[in-house]
Design a protein that fits this description.
247 residues; alpha+beta; Gyrase A, domain 2; RNA Polymerase Alpha Subunit, Chain A, domain 2; four-stranded antiparallel β-sheet; 7 helices; DNA-directed RNA polymerase; DNA binding; DNA-dir_RNA_pol_30-40kDasu_CS
Length: 247
């Protein structure tokens, strides 16, 4: 005796990912258990768009919960390097030390985290777990500027402090180790502060390894999201008039 055909709603649940808030029920002859071999056989990844700073891909053959798990892993579990310690020697700008330190921590750093160790709770900075950057800027009047000049870029010298002003200071054998690809900020034009004549900033920054679940500054992605790919089924033939109206 052959098994009877599954009800239409149950067959849909077996073969499709449904969007809803209902608890996933169990149905006869539908195995919802996780099977690693089936997962590897059904999983497909198709890259749709890839650039220097973003990637868009289709994840095929998995449940929405698995796609969401990948999203959460990318946000919180992938290690990166970020500025963790800021030692302020001088800061006469209008931005408080704590705010500057927070802004510096959010600057993405281009460095391979696999080349570094995590900082131990009772350990100190070494060339194996820390990158050191130096920031030193002082604003002055530009003697060559016109008296009626209003553009701060022309009227002053060093009126803006950018991420490109972070100077890497190699320690130990780091200079030789990273000679081909020196650590640096991902973007050079991130504004850290604005200065006016007489104001200056001098700081030493320690960059360490971490993950996004500890602090958002270690998250390697600005945005990680997913959506279900819709499947549109035309139930009835579309005439010429209806086709032009729907388009």
């Amino acid at each position: 005796m052959t098994d009877p055909k599954l009800p239409e709603n149950v067959e849909l649940l077996r073969t499709r990912v449904a969007s809803g808030s209902d608890y996933p029920h169990q149905y006869p002859r539908i195995d919802k258990g996780f099977n690693l071999e089936e997962f590897k056989k059904n999983l497909k990844v198709k890259i749709q768009r890839l650039s220097k700073h973003s990637v868009e891909f289709d994840l095929i053959g998995v449940d929405a919960s698995i796609a969401n798990a990948f999203r959460r892993i990318m946000i919180a579990e992938v290690p990166t390097m970020a500025i963790e310690k800021v030692y302020v020697m001088n800061n006469t700008s209008i931005i408080q030390d704590e705010v500057v330190a927070h802004r510096l921590g959010l600057i993405p750093i281009l460095a391979d985290p696999n080349e570094f160790d995590y900082m131990a709770e009772d350990g100190g900075p070494t060339d194996l777990n820390t990158l050191v950057f130096r920031l030193k800027k002082k604003c002055e009047f530009n003697p060559e500027a016109s008296p009626d000049e209003t553009d701060p870029h022309k009227k002053y010298i060093n009126s803006y402090v950018y991420s490109k002003d972070l100077i890497w200071e190699p320690k130990g054998n780091q200079e030789e180790k990273f000679a081909a690809n020196p650590p640096r900020p991902v973007h050079d034009d991130i504004v850290i502060a604005k200065l006016r004549p007489g104001q200056e900033m001098e700081m030493e920054l320690h960059c360490q390894k971490g993950v996004g679940r500890e602090h958002a500054k270690w998250s390697p992605v600005a945005t990680a999201s997913y959506r279900l790919l819709p499947e549109i089924t035309i139930l009835e033939p579309i005439t010429d008039g209806q086709g032009s109206q729907s388009s």
